[in-house]
Design goal:
The structure holds 2 protein chains of 2 kinds. Chain A is built from 1 helix and 11 strands; from the N terminus they run H-E-E-E-E-E-E-E-E-E-E-E. By secondary structure, chain A is an alpha+beta fold. In chain A, the strands form 3 sheets. Chain A has a 4-stranded antiparallel sheet, with no helix packed on it. Chain A has a 4-stranded antiparallel sheet with strand order 5-6-7-8, with no helix packed on it. Chain A has a 3-stranded antiparallel sheet with strand order 1-11-10, with no helix packed on it. Chain A is 23% helix and 33% strand. Chain A folds into 2 domains: 33 residues; 94 residues, Rieske [2Fe-2S] iron-sulphur domain (Rieske Iron-sulfur Protein), CATH 2.102.10. Chain B folds into 2 domains: 28 residues; 305 residues, Cytochrome Bc1 Complex, Chain C (Up-down Bundle). Chain B has 14 helices and 2 strands. Chain B has a two-stranded antiparallel sheet with strand order 1-2. In chain B, helix 4 crosses helix 5. Chain B is globular and about 65 Å long. The N and C termini of chain B lie far apart (65 Å). The chains are: A alpha+beta, B mainly alpha.
Chain lengths: 139, 365
């Protein structure tokens, strides 16, 4: 009986040590492989107001992902995620139609990111944008 | 739950029969010693080298312009990148060291003798391939050390008459070490040599399974009959100890001892195998002073320096390597106890002392 207790105790110790060793090996590998974009902070980006004329859009990288800054013909400014909410393709700006098209499955979004037609389930995510002293600050 | 899963698998592939035949019923000599576990340690080291190598390949860029920067990025910016890289770099040195010990124990215990000539030959080929994979990997960081050590190493082939200069150019992919050298060394290091090593390990283990484990020459002789070169026979060990759990525990102990030494080096002496030139990017127009190869090539390096003619130095090394490779065919006596083979023991000890002497001389010359 006492022998069984010792055997069980040693078994538990061995299992514990093996688990600790496995965690010690797996954790550095996980951290090594973890995507860098998730470690990047969402800093602020500054554009000159003249960079985005009316009716046009500018694509850029923001927080490790694709984003777009658009100024409508009426002068409204919006910063949006350029990642389609359907299956993750990057939307394109259709200057003539003044809307966003996702070429993968023909999803259409308005300049403020609302779904106009097609399969996207949600609007494009909005990114904070401010204008001060002739500069556009995104983020 | 586990038992039911095991039963399910057993019903389909006869797992219990395999376990009985290959593990619990696989009997080893009763007086088997710790040295027999070095093969298992080497398997673990090779697996670790493959795993860390794959992890390094994710961020390493095999391009002369960006290789050093990518290594610096892995070492300084990626979380635990330093650990993965040091495990790979220190592991390559440890693999050569453990391989040497494995061969040394085989030599001293006479396990290379009939009917195990092929085991020795495949092991010897593995040793040369491991040296090759270490040499080709040495260039990868594209540091001053790797660049100039590769220049010196590849240049030694130029002493071969007639084809030497062309051979050097062929090895380098140009007249000097440069971006084409990195391309071909990288392909050798990550594809061709690992596949060749894995295939040879397979052949080595196959031969081990077919011939059976040798009995250590120490202590009371075993009752089984000596090998007769008339027909094939597997050397079994009736009344021996089972591989699992008895010897598997010895394997595990040796692996744990290895990890203790290996991790002590990684954490407490990470720069043991690096000189200051390893931290400077390669500059093809700036040769550093006293460039030296890795420790396991120092004896070869010093031999080349001793002889007045480089060709003679290469010839002596080639002769020594050929002698060692063909040893089972030269030393044919069935006696395996080292103390009952005075000539062999004298040559072996002399050879080891010579190798150590040349290595130390090479280091300080």
């Amino acid at each position: 009986m006492e022998n069984d207790g010792r055997r069980k105790f040693l078994g538990v110790c061995l299992a514990g040590a093996t688990t600790a060793a496995a965690v010690a090996a797996v954790y550095p590998v996980f951290r090594y492989l973890a995507p860098r974009s998730s470690r990047l902070g969402e800093g602020k980006l500054v554009f000159a107001a003249g960079d985005i004329p009316e009716g046009e859009a500018k694509f850029f990288e923001y927080a490790g992902s694709a984003a777009v800054l658009v100024r409508t013909r009426t002068g409204e400014l919006a910063a949006l995620s350029a990642v389609c909410t359907h299956l993750g393709c990057i939307v394109q700006w259709e200057k003539d139609k003044q809307d966003f098209l996702c070429p993968c499955h023909a999803g259409h979004y308005s300049p403020d990111g609302a779904v106009l037609s097609g399969p996207p389930p949600r609007p494009l995510a909005k990114i904070p944008v401010t204008v001060a002293e002739g500069k556009i600050i995104v983020g | 739950m586990l038992k039911r899963l095991y039963d399910w698998i057993d019903l389909r592939i006869g797992a219990r029969e395999i376990v009985q035949k290959e593990l619990t019923g696989y009997l080893l000599p009763r007086k088997i010693n710790e040295w027999y576990s070095l093969g298992s340690v080497l398997l673990v080291i090779f697996a670790l080298q493959v795993a860390t190598g794959i992890l390094l390949m994710i961020y390493y860029v095999p391009d002369a312009e960006r290789a050093f920067k990518s290594i610096t990025f892995i070492m300084n910016e990626l979380p635990y990148g330093w650990l993965i890289r040091l495990c790979h770099a220190v592991g390559s040195n440890m693999m050569v060291a453990v391989l040497m010990l494995h061969m040394l124990s085989t030599l001293i215990m006479g396990s290379y003798k009939s009917p195990r000539e092929l085991n020795w030959l495949t092991g010897f080929l593995l040793f040369t391939l491991v040296q090759g994979i270490s040499l080709t990997g040495y260039l990868a960081p594209w540091s001053q050390l790797s660049f100039w050590a590769t220049t010196v190493a590849t240049n030694s082939a130029s002493a071969i008459p007639a084809i030497g200069p062309y051979l050097v150019e062929f090895l380098r992919g140009g007249k000097l070490v440069g971006p084409p050298t990195l391309g071909r060394f990288f392909a050798l290091h990550v594809a061709l040599l690992p596949i060749a090593i894995a295939a040879l390990i397979g052949a080595h283990l196959f031969l081990l399974k077919r011939t059976g484990i040798s009995t250590p020459p120490f202590g009371d002789p075993e009752t089984n009959k000596p090998w007769q070169p008339k027909s094939y026979s597997y050397q079994s060990h009736p009344g021996g100890i089972p591989f699992f759990p008895n010897y598997a525990l010895q394997d595990l102990t040796s692996i744990c001892i290895y990890f203790a030494i290996f991790l002590a080096l990684v954490f407490f002496a990470p720069n043991l195998f690096f000189t200051p030139d390893a931290f400077v990017p390669a500059d093809p127009f700036q040769t550093p002073a006293h460039i030296k190869p890795e420790w396991y090539f120092l004896a070869n390096y010093q031999t080349l320096k001793i002889f007045p003619s480089e060709l003679l130095g290469l010839f002596v090394q080639a002769a020594a390597m050929t002698f060692l490779a063909l040893l089972p065919f030269i030393d044919r006596s069935p006696e395996r106890h080292p103390l009952k083979r005075p000539l062999f023991l004298a040559c072996a000890v002399g050879g080891i002392l010579l190798w150590i002497g040349l290595t130390v001389w090479g280091h300080f010359s």
